[in-house]
Write a structure and sequence with these properties.
single chain; mainly alpha
Length: 101
């Protein structure tokens, strides 16, 4: 069986780029191989900030973004992180539809 993790993760980054076009070039740079020295510490800080989302400015939005950035460098995270993001997106879409009714 072929590992679909990297391709699925790239698609999630593409979705993020389309959702927040102003950050598109920045997201592309963060994914680049040369940004690894910045990406890993930044991702760890994002995850840490997401854990402390009860504080002002820090939010739960930081957790999935930090995990996505870590998954770029840690292949064992690619599958689980991508599945989590997809499932969360589906549940959020279902919740929004139910709320509209």
């Amino acid at each position: 069986m072929r590992d679909r993790g990297p391709a699925r993760l790239r698609r999630q980054f593409d979705r993020l780029r389309r959702a927040v076009p102003r950050l598109g070039s920045w997201i592309t740079w963060l994914q680049a191989r040369r940004a690894r020295l910045f990406r890993v510490p930044f991702a760890v800080l994002m995850v840490f900030g997401g854990v402390f989302s009860f504080l002002p400015f820090l939010g739960i939005w930081m957790l999935p973004l930090g995990l996505m950035l870590l998954a770029v460098d840690l292949p064992f995270l690619q599958g689980p992180v991508t599945k989590l993001i997809i499932r969360t997106r589906i549940k959020l879409r279902q919740w929004r539809r139910a709320r509209r009714r």
